[in-house]
Amino acid sequence: MSLPHPIIVVPGITATYLHDEYPLPPEDIWKVIKKQYERIALHPNDLRYEAVEPARVQPGQIFEIAYEELIEELRYNLASREDQPVPVYPFGYDWRLPLDTAEQQLAAFIDEVIERTKLLKHYHRGKYQDKPRVNLVGHSMGGLVIAGYLERVGSKAPVHKVVTLATPFQGSFEAVIKVATGTANLGMSPPSSREREAARMTPALYHLIPSFANGIEISAPSLPDSLFDPRLWQPSVVESIAEFIRRKGLPSPKTKLQEARDCFASLLSQAKAHRDRIDGFKLSKAKIPAKNWLAVVGVGTKTRVRLKIVKRGTQPDFALRGKDRANEWHDDVDDSQRRRLTGDGTVPYEGAVPQFIPEKSLVLVTPDDYGYWEVQDRALTLAAGFHGILPNMNMLHRLIVRFFADRPDKRRNTWGRSAPGVAKKDWNPPLKLRHKA
């Protein structure tokens, strides 16, 4: 088929509006400039529903500040004629819930997009109905949703190509900081201590806990070596969950502290099972060739690359050291291991490397890749962080269009960088790109 496949854009955590449909008219409770933490907090007795009832919180549109430019550029530049649009759909989902839930919702949405595309006359003439498929773009946690969906559905997934942007396949320490303190650089909004209760009762956030090698520095041999083990966390986390259960939960024969321990252990266990699924995923399972997956990783920004955990008395304690935020992505750094100590401000490089794609195929970008005229996006990067605004980069728009349309780079206006330790001659991105040092 000559027409491009329809595209679905899957946003990151916190980047979908949430509205409460119980009031009439429905009321937005989470959007770019409005965040009602108490009303998005989930109920300790059933994490599918809200702690403040009656309510019916549902996902709405995705954050326009992060994704509108990308979606409009794909719609405009992939269409050969104005009267023959290429469908590009935003996929809003409830980013609080376990990613298994989002994967199931994405599966249903893909089916819907395919059926809607079949109704377009130019796609019908192009015989789209003979082998209907979609292309997927996932930013941040959205890439995990896509990977989990493909691992779940396997060869039956009607997916042609995938783009992931700044996805924490191996996690981010910002998720740990968010759970531990309520403040971290996740998503588009400035951190707030008001988020702590909502964060600790948000299952999806635990799916972002880091698991890459050498990410945590353990000072005591008696401590476990995985952040998915509740014994490695500060007692204050469980204690605050117990207080939340006391205020919002239903009566139980268990003590509130035991309920909290069970809840916390369940959240970590569920997240660990999902990470194991993603780590075990193979592209061959979904019958997607390596050349059909473009994985973009952001570097060149100071990012938390490790976490030291000490023992104070008998309990673990997170030592949040300034030196653990690093950016060794400098021209004068020749040591490839040192150059790995970087990231996009939220996701460290090591956390962004998927297990199912060779590092020689990764495409790295930095804030310097914003064009001269992208003044607004440069300003947003300073305000919201490179990670959150990375989908606005004009060069990436051109690169993604080329990738989906199989177009040559006649003007040489798309580029990227190879992973640390990967020589230019060994770099093997899924499309031909100009290599930047």
Give a written overview of the molecule.
The protein has about 425 residues and is of the alpha/beta class. The protein has one domain (about 10-435). It has 15 helices and 19 strands. The chain has helices at about 35-40, 65-80, 100-120, 120-125, 140-155, 175-180, 195-200, 205, 235-250, 255-280, 335-340, 350, 375-385, 385-390, 395-405; strands at about 5-10, 15-20, 25-30, 35, 40-45, 45-50, 55-60, 90, 135-140, 160-165, 215-220, 295-300, 305, 305-310, 315-320, 325, 365, 415, 435. The strands form six sheets. A six-stranded parallel sheet has the order 8-1-9-10-12-17, with helices on both faces. The protein has a four-stranded antiparallel sheet with strand order 4-3-2-7. The longest helix is centred in the middle third of the chain and has 24 residues, at about 255-280. The radius of gyration is 22 Å and the shape is globular. The two termini are about 35 Å apart.
Strand order of the largest sheet: 8-1-9-10-12-17
Number of strands: 19
Number of helices: 15
Uncertain ranges: 187-193
The helix fraction, in percent, is 25-40%
* Beta strand %: 15-25%
Query: What's the rounded overall pLDDT mean?
Result: 93
Radius of gyration: 22 Å
Overall structural class, as computed from helix and strand content, comes to alpha/beta
Gap between N and C termini, in Å? 37 Å
> What's the structural domain tally?
1
Mind describing the biggest β-sheet? 6 strands, parallel
Shape: globular
